[in-house]
Design goal:
Blueprint lengths: L6 E6 L6 H16 L4 E7 L5 E2 L5 E2 L3 E2 L8 E4 L12 H13 L2 E4 L3 H7 L7 E2 L6 H7 L4 E2 L5 E4 L2 E4 L4 H14 L1 H11 L24 H12 L7 H8 L3 H12 L3 H18 L4 H7 L5 H12 L3 H8 L5
Parallel strand pairs: 1-2, 1-6, 2-5, 6-7, 7-11, 8-9
Antiparallel strand pairs: 3-4, 10-11
Helix pairs in contact: 1-5, 5-6, 7-10, 8-9, 10-11
């Protein structure tokens, strides 16, 4: 994007907005100005009235979004209200026209629900917080949701994962405008990563989800958890449950949309994560969780989280020293 003058960044806020969704990206752009950028940041609300954040902090704004000319960048902050409820018509209407006129439009965390409700994400790839990504996909099927991404760009539309991922996205926008050196200076000044390794799955809850509905599959969960180092090949699982391998495979496919082998792997993976959180070495965690070797655990971590077990442990081990 050519740097021909001040770059106008508008952040849309509204009652219930998540404060960090606003402050994080704004701080990135403000810090970039210290290194030679020229971002002009304005906070706007749908009506021009001040808003109250999810923390109860009142926020003064610079005006109504409809009263402002087109922006170079429009950011829509998130709120924990709208995964739980439909986005109000007034907020949808406030976004639709400015988003179409902006040079680029972006959402922070659950701000993706606001963009999707306004039709901005129709036919586009997008992400949001991992806890509600499935709700975004179900509510707005025209949007192609990528639940593991820290942020996603599709044309001039950007979406980011939960809260602090807004900082990652803002750094990416600064890099797009001014190159990697300036963006790197900003990241160092804010003591954050220039680019976070791995996707947001590394921050998510265990993968197993709710227990299976059928008694047979619940038995598989119980048996593997009780003795993760046991032999749980398809043949052994079918024999244990006194069903055919074909029937067992069909049960897993119909109820869980996976295979018996992948389900057993997920259980072992969750156990390994818990063991790493408890302070076990990666090698010891692999053995106790039923993986044949550290290398096999490392491959699963790389496939699921795009980081190694050791890197995961460094990030999520206890803060106590």
């Amino acid at each position: 994007m050519p740097n021909t003058g001040p770059h106008r960044v508008a952040i849309l806020v509204y009652d219930g907005v998540t404060l960090l969704d606003v402050a994080g990206p704004a701080e990135v752009f403000k810090e970039a100005n210290r290194f030679g950028a020229d971002y002009r940041i304005v906070l706007l609300s749908p009506t021009g009235a001040e808003v109250t954040s999810s923390l109860g902090v009142r926020m003064a704004v610079d005006g109504a979004i409809s009263a402002e000319p087109a922006f170079d960048t429009l950011l829509v902050a998130g709120s924990d209200r709208y995964p739980r409820a439909q986005v109000p018509a007034g907020l949808v209407d406030a976004v639709r026209v400015p988003a179409g006129a902006a040079g680029r439009v972006a959402s922070i965390c659950t701000g993706a629900f606001v963009l999707a409700a306004a039709g901005v994400l129709d036919g586009k790839r997008a992400t949001t917080h991992w806890q509600v990504a499935h709700q975004l996909a179900a509510r707005y099927p025209a949007c192609r949701v990528e639940p593991d991404a820290i942020y996603v760009r599709d044309g001039n539309t950007y979406t980011s994962a939960g809260v602090t991922a807004g900082i990652d996205l803002a750094l990416a926008l600064v890099e797009e405008d001014h190159g990697p050196d300036l963006a790197r200076d900003v990241a160092r000044a804010l003591v954050v990563y220039m680019q976070r390794a791995g996707g947001q799955s590394q921050f998510s809850a265990p993968l197993q989800g709710p227990p299976p509905r059928s008694a047979a599959l619940r038995t598989v969960t119980d048996v593997v958890t009780a003795n993760p180092r046991g032999d749980f090949s398809l043949t052994e699982l079918a024999r244990h449950l006194n069903v055919s391998t074909r029937q067992l495979t069909r049960l897993f496919h119909d109820e869980l949309s996976t295979t018996p082998a992948r389900y057993v792997e997920n259980i072992r993976f969750d156990l390994a994560r818990a063991l790493l959180d408890q302070g076990h070495t990666a090698t010891r965690a692999a053995i106790l969780a039923g993986f044949p070797s550290y290398e096999s655990l490392r491959r699963v971590f790389a496939r699921k989280l795009s980081i190694s077990p050791a890197a995961y442990q460094r990030r999520f081990s206890t803060a106590r020293r």
